[in-house]
Amino acid sequence: IAAAVEAWERGAAALPEPWQPQKPVLPVEGMRNVLITSALPYVNNVPHLGNIIGCVLSADTFARYCRLRNWNTLYVCGTDEYGTATETKAMEEGLTPREICDKYNAIHADIYRWFDISFDYFGRTTTPHQTTIAQDIFQRLLARGFLLQDTVEQLRCEGCQQFLADRFVEGTCPFCSYEEARGDQCDKCGKLINAVELKNPQCKLCRGVPVVKPTQHLFLDLPKLEERLEPWLEQSWAAGDWTANARYITRSWLRDGLKPRCITRDLKWGTPVPLDGFRDKVFYVWFDAPIGYLSITANYTDQWERWWKNPEQ
Q: What does DSSP assign to residue 134?
């Protein structure tokens, strides 16, 4: 408080010159370099105040604070555009998934511009950089033995002639009996669900009753990481500012034992899987979307790795 009073009495003239970063903003040796991202807003809606307050505004406030501190700051964001929710919205509006993404990306960008959100770059996940980086990460996981192949019992709608992605299925939660649970998660009890576990499943496209059929998919071998993950988490919990909720959920996953997690889907709208036998599939959006932070930065600057692979700065 004493330091704040002293600075106030000296007045604005005594403040250091504001830092003017180069364009594009890149890490600078000897400076505090801060990379800020907002959770990527999903593309299939018009943002409202709740979205902005819960997502981009807090990051914008922090970005402004960092710049006032003369820290070298990059703030990036963009729309999350793959996944079944986009396909569903496209069907509702009679457009292609690409047309839906183009339409709502522009709406998002205009609204954030109107609110004067101070992004250095606002991009999107449906870009060539996204494909390149996601497929590269996939190939590295494959080469290091972190992927499994397995046959999955999956719901198929004979009326629509397709396997149903998680969000194209609705039914009764097997854990809490909530009647509008999705095929990947119950919004009432929060538990992850395998779509075939749903009671009374329905196809959301035609309201038909799907049947269970086998299909081949690829999985992240998460149990292989468990031994290394636990000590890292203990160290991170001690040093970092994890929320109580994040700690609780993570501990519950470890307590129950990590399970292999499917990273492919029988869809057309997504990043293609670059592996023979799976080229008619795409990556599951929760494998693909977090890579959007990297690819959006790559669309901002071809030196993106200086932000994402540069722990010394």
A: H
From start to end of the chain, where are the E strands?
Answer: 33-37, 72-79, 121-124, 147-157, 162-163, 169-172, 181-182, 199-203, 211-220, 261-262, 264-265, 282-283
Distance CA 270, CA 285 (A): 7
pLDDT (tens digit per residue) in 222-241: 999 998 999 999 999 998 88
The residue segments making up the domain with residue 177 are 155-213
Which of residues 213, 228, 246 is at a domain's end? Answer: 213
129 and 168 co-located in one domain: no
Residue 121 has pLDDT above 80, yes or no: yes
Q: Hey, what are 207's tokens?
A: 């309201």
Residue 111 has pLDDT above 90, yes or no: yes
pTM of the model: 0.84
The predicted model gives 194-206 an average pLDDT of: 88
293 in a structural domain: yes
Amino acid (one-letter) located at 69: R
